[in-house]
Amino acid sequence: MATTCVTIYSTRFCGYCRAAEDLLRRSGVPFLSIDVTGDAEAREQLLERTNGYRTVPVIFNGDTFIGGFQELARLASQGDLRGRLCDSQAA
User: Fold this and answer.
1) Which residues does residue 59 pair with via DSSP β-bridges, in sequence order?
2) DSSP assignment of 7-71
3) Which residues contact 19 (CB under 8 A, 6 or more apart)?
4) What confidence score (pLDDT) does residue 19 get?
5) Which of 13, 17, 44, 89 has the most neighbouring CB atoms within 10 Å?
6) Which pLDDT belongs to residue 42?
7) Separation between Cα atoms, residue 81 and residue 38, nearest integer Å
8) Which residues, at least 6 apart from 84, have a Cβ–Cβ distance to it below 8 Å?
């Protein structure tokens, strides 16, 4: 079983959330998706982890906040997204 490298907070109707998840899948990056749609507890966890960041997707590499879809796409454009995210946790 693959270790989860990335956590993504999303909502059901967010196109950028779906795009981020699709990019992670295509890149072979294991991720945990947390749907905050109508989930006050998950939304509160999101706010705490980001010091108030409210928009989705919110993407973490381990405990490091990397941003949203645009930041993820920027990392992917630099090549080897899986290596950049998963391997950085082994350090």
Assistant:
1) 8, 67
2) EEEE-TT-HHHHHHHHHHHHTT--EEEEE-TT-HHHHHHHHHHHTS--SS-EEEETTEEEESHHH
3) 69
4) 98
5) 17
6) 92
7) 31
8) 75, 78
pLDDT digits (tens, 9 = 90+) for 14-59: 999 999 999 999 999 999 999 999 999 999 999 999 988 889 999 9
CB neighbour class for 5 (10 Å; exposed up to 12, middle 13-18, buried from 19): buried
Q: If we measure between CA atoms, which residue out of 24, 46, 23 comes closest to residue 36?
A: 46
Left (φ > 0), alpha (ψ -120 to 50) or beta: where does 67 sit? left
Q: How many residues does the chain have?
A: 91
The rounded percent of the chain whose pLDDT value lies above 90 is 68
- The whole model's pTM is what? 0.88
What sign does the dihedral 88-62-68-29 (CA atoms) show? positive
- Residue 71 clears pLDDT 80, i.e. is over it: yes
